[in-house]
């Protein structure tokens, strides 16, 4: 069976304005190569990678620059042909100074990838497949940037019964996943086929929200009468979260503190599946990605294919940053990261760059909590965000953990729903960071 429309949904959630019309029908265009790229050695969750080339090295597009610094780490490749000009601390989008590699692009060299043969993935063992995915530098492209190969290393006693391909893209403004499904459906389906076969999944489901009907229709044409199903889902935020998506498709709960694999499911983003196909069919590692550039602060909203390491300033200049911009966010407006500087690079996990003017930037004053319960109604993890925010302000770490603060996925629905302007998710995020630091110190 290849189609379906599911009425199931996860509990609670919100319906923010989508603002996707700016770019939903704008095909990808290639961002010109910048004169200089900055590549942080920490591109993802986990350990940073370790450089294998030094200052002065001539590198070619697709060449390995750094190797994994551990299992939860991945490979970094050069997005351009050029020369390494620095190995030094550079500003990361999160504001920290992190070890980075600086490359000056060679304007006179071909930027084509060197010829590479396809990889016979069917001849690989699962461990060999995992090594290849790590070698390809693949991370989750939906925003979290978790190293993809780690998901494929199944815990002892666990089996992958189902592969879920996440095409929800529920964050407002963002449409790069949408365009990937419309423009590259064969690659999405091909990547899913490769992963499902290697993991032994008996069922593959591609979940897409109903505000992307063209993507659903395109994927269904590619799937045909094959075993993969393309499911249309009612639009609701944060349906792109793994546990919410599993609930919507299968009416199945992933228990608190557990992962999708604990119920026999692996979830991957649609762009990640296309990247798997690119590597095994064409030998292309993860050196570029789709990025939505939108918001009232840009004159030419676009979907771009951007080399990793390109500065946000270069991207916005390409799209016409206007002088009324007051805030720039990397990612979506709900879970994205406000930038203190535009001179930071696009990362492997960067799904969008949003430029907001005063009319969009949130200037809401904070008032006392009304105890109205709207944050509880919004929270799809069934937590009590207002209580967590109060405990966070008071630094009551043990009580926070007793109230399952670490289960919060920081989707921002609580803050969106709060009529008093309480920065609920920011308080919770800071509390989680403090708890992790205390545990690391053994406190």
Distance between the termini: 53 Å
CATH superfamily of the domain at 3-25 and 147-282: NADH-ubiquinone oxidoreductase 51kDa subunit
Number of helices: 13
Helix content: 25-40%
How would you classify the helix and strand content by structural class?
Answer: alpha/beta
What is the name of the CATH topology of the domain at 3-25 and 147-282? Answer: Rossmann fold
How many beta-strand elements? Answer: 18
- The low-pLDDT segments are none
The average pLDDT value, as a whole number, equals: 94
Question: What characteristic shape results from the CA principal axes?
Answer: globular
Please give the CATH class of the domain at 3-25 and 147-282.
Alpha Beta
Radius of gyration: 21 Å
Strand order of the largest sheet: 2-15-14-18-16-17
CATH architectural grouping of the domain at 3-25 and 147-282? 3-Layer(aba) Sandwich
Strand content: 15-25%
Largest sheet: 6 strands, mixed
Task: Record keyword descriptors for this entry.
13 helices; single chain; 18 strands; Rossmann fold; 6-stranded mixed sheet; about 450 residues; alpha/beta; 5-stranded parallel sheet
Layout of secondary structure:
Layout: E1 3-6, E2 28-30, E3 36-40, E4 50-51, E5 58-59, E6 64-67, E7 76-77, E8 82-91, E9 97-105, H1 126-135, H2 148-152, E10 162-167, H3 176-183, H4 185-199, E11 203-209, H5 213-223, E12 229-233, H6 242-250, E13 265-269, H7 270-282, E14 288-294, E15 302-307, H8 312-319, E16 325-330, E17 337-338, E18 352-357, H9 374-378, H10 385-394, H11 397-402, H12 413-417, H13 424-440
Parallel strand pairs: 1-12, 2-15, 10-11, 10-13, 11-12, 14-18
Antiparallel strand pairs: 3-9, 4-6, 5-8, 6-7, 8-9, 14-15, 16-17, 16-18
Helix pairs in contact: 3-5, 4-5, 4-7, 10-13
